[in-house]
Structures are given as C-alpha cells and as structure tokens.
C-alpha cells in the first residue's frame, strides 16, 4: 500500500514491532519456567498456565465468542480495582464543554505496561498529566485491545474514562468483519461479548475502528452492531462510551472523511461520538460542528502528534490544531502523545513530557480538578506541576522523582536550586474543587530537607459569594519570624500543631495542621519554598527590602493527606480475612536452595465488598514454625515482594535458602487515605517449605 494511503488513517501509527506482545509473553514464560530465553526458545504462550501475569489482547473473534479470556490464568489480575470517583465521571454524562480524548497508541502497545504486577524499568513510558484528559483510549493493532489495569486504575483515580479498541484492518480484518457482520444476530452477539469484557475488566467502553472495505449490504448489520453495543454498554455500565472512528463510510468504502458528514454521520448517530481522522483542513471543525448540531461536543477532531498529514504539524506545534478545534467549539482527539518518548525528545523524557503537555494546557486549560472529595491522598504520582517555559530561569527546579526511593511508593516532588533568605518560591501541586464542610480539615504532609530549607503549603479558597482567602501552612520553626515573613502575603498563617520525626524513614518529618473553613471551596494547593532564619534574627517591621545572596536549597515532598479531623482508618483484623496459596510449585536450586512459584489470593470472610485497592506483599523466611507469631520476626527482616491492586498476587521463582522451614506471606492492606495496616496486624499465609 502506498505511503499516501498509510498516512490517511490510524494504521500509520504502528511504529513498534508487531512481535512486542509475543516478546512479553515469551519473557514471562521463560521467567516462570526458569529457561534462558537467549539459548532456548520459550514455549508457546498458554493463557491457562500459571505465569507472571500479563495483559494481552484478543486476536480472533473465536476468542471473543467463546469467552476464552475468562478462563485465562491472567484474567483476575487484569481487573481494574479503582472505580471512577463520585463526581468524577462514573455514571454521569460527559461534561458539557469541549473535551480532550487521548489515544495512547504507543509503540504497538503492551510494552512495559503489559506486566500487570509492575516491572523494573524506571524509564518506562507514563502519563502524569491526567488533569488535561477526559477520555483515554488504549490502542494496539490487535483485533480486541484490552487496556492494562495500570492505565484504568490511574485514569479512574483522576476522573478519566478508559476505552478499549476494536480494530479490523488489512486482509485479516476483512475476514473478521465478514464474520462479525454476517447476520444481525452475529452483530448483536459480538457486541454483547465486548460489553461483557468491558464490565468484567472495569473499563468504560470502546473505540470502534473498521478500516476495511465492506459490501454495501453489510452496512445495516454494522449499524446494528454499533447500536447494540452502545445500548448494551449503557445498560450494563451507566456513563460508558462507544466512540466511532472515522474510517469506512455508509457506502462500504474505506475513505477517511476527516470531518463529520453524511458519509459517516449514521454511525455517529448510533453511538456516543466520533473520532475524526487527523488529516482535516482548517474549516473542517466548524463544518463538523454544523453537521453535529447540538451534539458538536461529541465530535473529537483528531491530531497526530507525530505530525504526518495533521493540521498544524503536530509535535511541538500540536497547540496550533488545538486552538482551532477549541475555537469552533468541538472536542479534540490526540493520537500518540508517546511521540515525546518514542523519539527521545531532549533533554530527557520528564522535561520534554512536561513541556509538551504544557502546550496542551496553555491551549485548552485544565479539564479535571482534584481534590473533589475527602479523604484525599496523594503520593505525587500525578501532581498538577506547571511547565515554566525556560526552567533554567527559575531559581528552583521542580521535578517528580520516579527512580529514587520514595516516601510511600509514589513519586517524590523534589525542589532544588538557589534561594535567598527573604525569598520565596511557589509551585502548583493541585487544582481542586472541594467544598469544605463544618468539620475541621486535618492536613498532614511529609517533608525531607537539608540545611535551613523549609517547605510549606499554600491553600487558595473561595466562597459562593466570591470571597477569596489564602492560607499558609508553615513548616515548623520560629513562629514569630514566620508570621512576620508571611502575614502580609496570606489571609492566615498557621503553624503546625504537631511535627513527627519518622524513625522508620530517616530524614523525613511529618507535619500536621488543622484548619476550619466552613463553606469555602478549596481551589488550589501550592508548595512554598523558603528558608528559616536564626533565632536571633530581628523581626522585619519596615517595608525596606532585606536581601541576601542566594544559597543552595533542597527539599522533598513525599505525600499529602487531607481528611476531616478525627478520621481514623479502621482495618479489618487479620482474622477477618481468608488467605491461601494456589498453584504452588517448587523447583530445586543450588546449594540445597529451592525456588517457589505461587499465587496468593485473599478475601474477606463475610463476603462484603471492601474499599481497599492497594495491598503491599511481604514475606518472612522463617527457620522454625514456632517463630511465625513472634513479634520480633517483624523487626525489618521481612522482604518486600510487590504491590497488588486486586486480591491476588503471583510470585515467580522466589529463592528460598537451605535451612528455611516456612514462608509467611503478609498482605498489608492500604486504604484510599494512604494509611496502611501494621504488618504485625495484617492478614498472612503460612506455607511450609517442601521437604523441610
């Protein structure tokens, strides 16, 4: 097929190897079977066999029709554990404003993100600008693309809906289309199977991409398929979405229209929106809006970030197309923002990523806000950091650290640079929409700093009568000096009521503050960098500037939690859980050691649905069964295994030295407010070592 035709549609986005998925499968199987993949070809992927859990797509309609996926060993690990928050999408209709849809489409899909339980690549692709996104589509060039749960869990945490993809392309796609559309009954059957998968795995709907020529006689069945899928999704999952991709026309011809018109509107009329191909001209968004009428917000004009055939050129001028789309009052569909990562944009991924998404924010503004509800907790996997333009001109450089040891498993926000004694530097952390009630707010945050570097938080609030307030939550220090330094800048300055040095986390301190702001809406949280002054410093009482030469500043923000005062997490006792081991497999290792593979699964005995979606997994390697209940065994000798977002975890080839008689697997339950159960009170599973 000619390059011109390739550029016309979504096919042009496959830049990764078609074998990427097989590489993941093979490496998982090789790891599980203890084989050297470089020397011995791994066995074919068997979805029924216990192995390192992975995400994978369906390649045939037969897999879809027979519900084969539900029999897979990997199915329970791929269920998303996080639901859309109340007020953040859920069963609600889409917001009545121009929206942003992002189509992942990165290197063929299922790369590092295919490993459900995480991986070791600290440089893996990630998105942390969820406040700029309404809908996220996970895309690959396989027939049925199922989003890995890491994307669904993260997107849902931030109020973003997630869609899988059905794509039929090339000769194989034509054969599948003929089968799917052979009768009205077959169209309905496969629609129901897709809806069933979406509900079972916890994502929110489908992008439909039919990039093959069809016989005109197949169009009525295609329309039935779209209608039935949309209706079934809506009845099964209120608030779900089915989006049609601008591809085949009502005449059965594969011809990308690059706008909404009479050739693709019948498909648009039967679902929740259309993602228009990206080779449109400047007036096409306006023309599409006119055709859509009162549904113009359901028209998502495509932009290829790689820039091939796209209005405005994509890449570092993606904002040119965004500006036109927003001006004409329709929505945007951004293809392949992974361009930044795939093309190694300088100077490094995080800096380039922040710069590129900064273009989106400048053009479109933010579309999500949080916190919206309490409790609110963040370990800064996804802050609202602003891209400052020329960051070298800023006195303090702000970055999210994903590689260094974090405070609580997230990404530390690091502030590093030069700052004078009487200077302050602020950086946005979150844009919120949180109505504050009668109860006081209890705010805690963890900080690590050097020298006299201090870090506080600034809260911006408003009322329905537009009364604005700013509250500064200062770091611990000289209260009088702090008041003198900041009282003119803020409505209120609050000194922390408690400061705790964290013995388990050397260098970290936890600062706790309480405030009352009944009737206010929390709109913004900012970090404030400043310096402490010696105790013998004179209070500044005049308006003359007092400056000093800037010196090195360094502080790290680990996490933040906002609750109503007095709230404590009540964890079910260990005895309330059932924990067991499944698929136990022992193999021999060197010097009398053994290797263990096992699936650990747990659930509450009373069958109630719990609100926990994070579990830390530890193991104690015990030399005698009698030591299992001794508290001294939890003095740090436990080994961290991983984290689970579902109630199961697969351990592959755990090395067990000679002399170990039993293994105590501890499931540390963590709540949405960031609290985790004490290890000695957590549920556990005791497994005797084979032959010990």
UniProtKB/TrEMBL annotation:
Q: Per the record, a Pfam family?
A: Ig_ENGASE1_C
Q: Which GO terms describe its cellular component?
A: cytosol
List where in the cell it is found.
Cytoplasm, Cytosol
Chief location of this protein within or outside the cell: cytoplasm
Gene Ontology biological process terms in this record: N-glycan processing
Q: Which residues form the Cytosolic endo-beta-N-acetylglucosaminidase TIM barrel domain?
A: 111-382
* Domain called Cytosolic endo-beta-N-acetylglucosaminidase C-terminal: residue spans: 570-689
The UniProt record lists the keyword Metal-binding: no
**E.C. number, please?**
3.2.1.96
Q: Which family does it belong to?
A: Belongs to the glycosyl hydrolase 85 family.
What biological function has been recorded for the protein in this entry? Answer: Endoglycosidase that releases N-glycans from glycoproteins by cleaving the beta-1,4-glycosidic bond in the N,N'-diacetylchitobiose core. Involved in the production of high-mannose type N-glycans during plant development and fruit maturation.
Protein name (Swiss-Prot/TrEMBL): mannosyl-glycoprotein endo-beta-N-acetylglucosaminidase
């Amino acid at each position: 097929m000619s390059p011109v035709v390739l550029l016309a549609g979504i096919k042009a986005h496959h830049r990764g190897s078609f074998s990427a998925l097989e590489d993941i499968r093979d490496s998982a199987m090789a790891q599980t079977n203890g084989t050297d993949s470089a020397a011995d070809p791994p066995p074919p992927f068997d979805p029924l066999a216990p192995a390192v859990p992975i995400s994978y797509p369906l390649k045939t309609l037969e897999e879809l029709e027979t519900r084969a996926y539900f029999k897979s060993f990997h199915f329970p690990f791929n269920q998303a554990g996080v639901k859309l928050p109340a007020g953040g999408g859920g069963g609600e209709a889409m917001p009545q404003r121009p929206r942003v849809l992002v189509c992942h489409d990165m290197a063929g899909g299922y790369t590092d993100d295919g490993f459900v339980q995480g991986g070791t690549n600290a440089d893996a692709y990630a998105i942390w600008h969820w406040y700029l996104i309404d809908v996220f589509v996970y895309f690959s060039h396989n027939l049925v693309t199922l989003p890995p749960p890491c994307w669904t869990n993260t997107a849902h945490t931030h109020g973003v809906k997630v869609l899988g993809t059905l794509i039929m392309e090339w000769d194989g796609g034509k054969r599948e289309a003929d089968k799917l559309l052979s009768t009205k009954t077959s169209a309905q059957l496969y629609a129901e199977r897709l809806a069933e998968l979406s509900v079972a795995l916890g994502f929110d709907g489908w992008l439909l991409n039919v990039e093959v020529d069809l016989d005109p006689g197949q169009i009525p069945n295609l329309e039935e398929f779209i209608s039935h899928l949309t209706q079934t999704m809506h009845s099964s999952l209120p608030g779900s979405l089915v989006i049609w991709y601008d591809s085949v026309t009502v005449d059965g011809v594969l011809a990308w229209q690059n706008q909404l018109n009479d050739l693709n509107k019948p498909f648009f009329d039967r679902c929740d929106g259309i993602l228009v191909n990206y080779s449109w001209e400047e007036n096409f968004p306006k023309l599409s809006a006119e055709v859509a009428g009162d549904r113009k917000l359901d028209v998502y004009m495509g932009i290829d970030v790689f820039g091939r055939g796209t209005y405005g050129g994509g890449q570092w001028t993606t904002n040119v197309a965004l500006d036109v789309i927003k001006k004409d009052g329709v929505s945007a569909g951004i293809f392949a923002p992974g361009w930044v990562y795939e093309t190694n944009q300088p100077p490094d991924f995080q800096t380039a990523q922040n710069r590129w998404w900064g273009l989106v924010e400048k053009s479109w503004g933010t579309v999500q806000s949080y916190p919206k509800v309490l409790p609110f907790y963040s370990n800064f996997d996804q802050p609202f950091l602003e891209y400052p333009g020329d960051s070298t001109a800023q006195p303090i450089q702000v970055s999210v650290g994903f590689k260094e040891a974090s405070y609580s498993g997230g990404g530390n926000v690091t502030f590093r640079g030069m700052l004078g004694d009487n200077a302050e530097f602020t950086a946005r952390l979150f844009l919120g929409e949180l109505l504050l009630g009668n109860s006081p707010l209890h705010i805690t945050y963890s900080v690590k700093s050097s020298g006299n570097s201090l870090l506080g938080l600034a809260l911006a609030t408003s009322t329905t009568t537009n009364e604005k307030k700013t509250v500064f939550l200062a770091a611990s220090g000289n209260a009088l000096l702090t008041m003198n330094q900041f009282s003119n800048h803020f409505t209120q300055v609050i000194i922390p009521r408690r400061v705790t040095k964290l013995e388990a986390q050397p260098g970290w301190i936890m600062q706790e503050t309480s405030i009352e702001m009944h009737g206010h809406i929390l709109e913004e949280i900012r970090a404030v960098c400043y310096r402490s002054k010696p105790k013998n410093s004179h209070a500044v009482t005049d308006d003359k500037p007092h400056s000093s030469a800037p010196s090195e500043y360094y502080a790290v923000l680990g996490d933040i939690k906002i609750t109503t005062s007095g709230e404590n997490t009540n964890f079910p006792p260990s005895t309330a859980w059932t924990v067991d081991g499944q698929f136990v497999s022992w193999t021999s290792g060197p010097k009398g050691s053994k290797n263990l593979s096992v699936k650990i699964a747990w659930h509450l005995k009373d069958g109630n649905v719990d609100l926990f979606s994070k579990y830390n997994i530890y193991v104690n390697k015990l030399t005698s069964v009698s030591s299992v209940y001794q508290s001294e065994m939890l003095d740090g000798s436990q080994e961290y295994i991983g984290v689970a977002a579902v109630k199961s975890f697969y351990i592959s080839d755990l090395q067990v030295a000679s002399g170990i008689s039993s293994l105590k697997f501890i499931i540390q339950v963590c709540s949405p407010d960031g609290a985790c159960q004490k290890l000695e009170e957590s549920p556990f599973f005791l497994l005797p070592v084979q032959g010990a």
